[in-house]
Design goal:
This protein is α+β, with helices and mostly antiparallel strands. It folds into three domains: about 130 residues, no CATH class; about 190 residues, Gyrase A, domain 2 (2-Layer Sandwich), CATH 3.30.1360; about 150 residues, Gyrase A, domain 2. Helix content is about 50%, strand content about 10%. The protein has 24 helices and eleven strands. The strands form four sheets. It has a four-stranded antiparallel β-sheet. β9 and β10 form a beta hairpin. The longest helix is centred in the middle third of the chain and has 29 residues.
Length: about 600
């Protein structure tokens, strides 16, 4: 039972809510049992069927069960927005009676006539508009055996939920059916470089696997288990640390899996964008995702196939990319050599607004006033720094968890960063959905990040650092061959997680209160923890009164450790209380 029950049993809670409505003059009675307006009560067969679709039939707040088809839900809410009837009456009197949805004769998971539901949705779509309705339907998809490059295109949306196979908890060095898990792109297979590509990619995965093996005993020696530590948690932390270090070898051709939940509108945008990608893999994956989603929510995503909608959208995206690239290359011609300047990780604060403290303080005051914003800004200009700090402290004090973000007033402060970091770090930071990020094409010209541990371990008497540098030199040569002989876009498959790259980030202070404590926390990967801390240093120097309240959730230590040990111990404790589990997370063998 939810927190709204205040600890009451269900019967007492229903009684409490009925009395609450009555005491406040809310004329609520169950429309299902008593009717509503000119609509009489529903008959017993309809009530029986409806009870499988909704969590209750006698209260004004309820959820739909999985038995309700997505397209019916979207159509219901669209009609609901323009009807005086409660939603249950819309379903029974309009959809059920008028549109042929014979839910009453059905049972179980197939409670609705899907064909009728889709015909209904097309009518609703025409009447209520495309975008607002498409936002109400959600598709759940699993996308497997796709490259890191394609997954980054899949995850490039702002609205949606994605969960990708973790390089921290999964060993990517295993062969499947005698082959390592990396993509052999059509463009490379059909080129002169196919043999060299496969040889170098095999070497990358072989070195990754061998490095993981030699790191395990090294890490156990460096971070011995302590009395009282859970052995399964300890071993899993060692594995996670080894995978975190060795992932520098992994190329962007590495195959992975990703699950996603997207609104139909977000899915349409993703598919249209990927269908215009210069990578054949992305185009094929987009077409496949569309085919599968078309089985479950065809009427929600019908615009993708419409020449006047999806067709023209893709034409625009493709032509815009080609036109812009041609003109950009001419415009940037004199800056070509500048790309080689970025050869070390770091964060540059490129731009921030002037007077952001006054903007934030004004936004804090605004909801409490009844005067124009410009007059509040004039007032704030005359406040002392101490008075402004008091208002900021009142706004953010009392936070006991990094997940407690400040209110929207902090969105008034905006910052733009240019970051040089390794590809693995960018992959992790790209998941911050509310951040506006743009990356440059992945390349090898900026050099590589070298994990410190590579100097401490060896394979057959040769340090992993030397093996890594020799291998990345081979990969660099292959990259340039593919970039000139096939395309710079396809050459990205060769780039490794350890290669340096550049990306820009435009973000407001409110989102920074989420991003920095999350990525600069104790459990974070050392590479992105460093980047997140540098972002904090930059904004704290610029706007200390705004930035300093997030300091308590930042780990400033560079002491080597098992980053995941503490967090995994908490997970194990929770699982033990729930009766066990976590066999994929807690591996007991070495």
């Amino acid at each position: 039972m939810g927190i709204a029950s205040f600890g009451l049993g269900l019967y007492k809670f229903v009684k409490y809510m009925n009395e609450w409505f009555k005491d406040r003059g809310i004329p609520y009675t169950s429309e299902v049992m008593n009717g509503y307006g000119n609509d009489g009560p529903l008959d017993s067969s309809v009530v029986s069927a409806m009870s499988t679709l909704m969590t209750n039939l006698d209260r004004p707040i309820y959820a739909f069960t999985s038995a309700m088809p997505v397209e019916v839900t979207a159509a219901l809410f669209a009609r609901y927005s323009r009807s005086p009837r409660p939603l249950r009456m819309v379903l029974a009197r309009e959809f059920w009676d008028k549109d042929g949805l014979d839910l009453a004769k059905s049972s179980g998971a197939s409670i609705a006539d899907v064909k009728a539901a889709r015909q209904l949705f097309k009518r609703v779509l025409a009447e209520y508009g495309d975008d607002s309705v498409a936002q109400l339907g959600v598709a759940w998809l699993a996308c497997e055996m796709v490259s890191q490059l394609a997954v980054k295109e899949i995850e490039d949306g702002r609205i949606g939920a994605w969960l990708e196979k973790s390089t921290r908890y999964v060993d990517f060095g295993k062969e499947v059916n005698g082959k390592y898990l990396y993509l052999r792109p059509t463009e490379i297979v059909n080129s002169f470089f196919a043999g060299e590509y496969e040889q170098i990619m095999d070497e990358a995965f072989n070195l990754y696997g061998q490095t993981v093996k030699v790191l395990m005993p090294y890490l156990r020696g460096k971070f011995p288990i302590h009395p009282g530590d859970d052995e399964a948690v300890y071993k899993s932390s060692i594995r996670a640390k080894a995978f975190d270090i060795a992932r520098a070898f992994l190329p962007m051709s590495t195959l992975t899996n990703v699950g996603m939940a997207l609104s139909a509108q977000a899915f349409e945008g993703m598919v249209n964008k990927m269908m215009t990608s210069p990578l054949s893999e992305s185009r094929v994956v987009a077409a496949d995702m569309h085919n599968e989603a078309n089985i479950v929510i065809p009427s929600l995503i019908s615009r993708i196939e419409d020449p006047e909608s999806g067709g023209k959208a893709r034409n625009y995206l493709n032509e815009s990319r080609l036109r812009t690239r041609e003109l950009a290359m001419k415009t940037l011609e004199g800056l070509k050599t500048c790309s080689e300047e970025a050869t070390a990780s770091g964060v540059e604060l490129v731009w921030s607004q002037d007077g952001v403290l006054n903007r934030v303080v004004s936004a804090i005051l605004y909801p409490h006033a009844h005067v124009n914003l410009s007059k509040i800004r004039e007032l704030v200009e005359g406040l002392s720094d101490g008075e402004k700090r008091d208002l900021i402290d009142a706004y953010v004090s009392g936070r006991t968890n990094r997940r407690h973000k400040p209110g929207r007033a902090f969105e008034e402060a905006v910052y733009e960063f240019n970051t040089v970091g390794n590809v693995g770090v960018w992959r992790d930071l790209q998941r911050m959905r509310l951040v506006m990020q743009q990356r440059q094409l992945l390349t090898v010209v900026h050099g590589v990040d070298i994990p410190e541990e590579f100097s401490e371990v060896g394979i057959d008497g040769v340090s992993v650092k030397n093996l890594y540098l020799a291998h990345m030199e081979k990969r660099s040569g292959l990259f340039h061959k593919i970039a000139s002989g096939v395309s710079p876009e396809v050459a990205q498959y060769v780039v490794g997680f350890g290669n340096l790259m550049q990306w820009s980030t435009t973000v407001n202070m409110r989102e920074l209160f989420h991003l920095i404590p999350l990525r600069a926390g104790k459990a974070g990967h050392p590479a992105y923890r460093k980047i997140a801390r540098e972002m904090f240093y930059k904004i704290a120097e610029r706007d200390p009164i705004l930035a300093m309240p997030m300091e308590q959730y930042i780990d400033f230590s560079d002491e080597p450790r098992l980053e995941r040990l503490e967090q995994l111990a908490k997970v194990k404790e929770k699982l033990d209380r729930l009766g066990g589990g976590g066999t994929d997370t807690f591996i007991t063998e070495d």
